[in-house]
Amino acid sequence: MNCPACGHTLSAHEVGGITVDVCKGGCGGIWFDAHELNRVDEASESADDGLLDVPRDPAVRFDHTARRYCPHCSDIVMMRHYFSVRREVEVDCCPSCGGYFLDHGELAAIRAQFVTEELRREAARAAFAELFDPQLAAEAAVSAERRERSRAFARMLRVLLPSYWLPGKQPWGAY
Fold this sequence. Notes:
The protein is α+β, with helices and mostly antiparallel strands. It is 33% helix and 14% strand.
């Protein structure tokens, strides 16, 4: 398998019970198969220094903005996105196999963002609340207003319902 960034051959490296592919002697990038990155992305999880600082050749140059093809799927262009809500580390992800490619130093930056998964979830909740809570509150207010208007209209029309005037009014009525 070749590195998607520099084309150098990736070599296997075992860490924490998983085998990842690293670009030793090339750009220093790391390829994680699907769900492997989640096992080493926190500071409390096991990742040896060899994975956090992959030996690389400083003479190797590559275009950071160029499209990268998945080393596993070969014909699939990887998608670039931020790894967390802090939007500090941009990673490449294959939409087909779910693998991740991290450039040199990105794993250390990811591990430095959050100490635990709970802190990561709390940051995500806060970010989504900041983005969507005002819109959701406005929609809830509109829905409540529409519901009240429909109930008022239904109360006006209940005079036309024969069951309203009969003794033993039905308790299952909607309004």
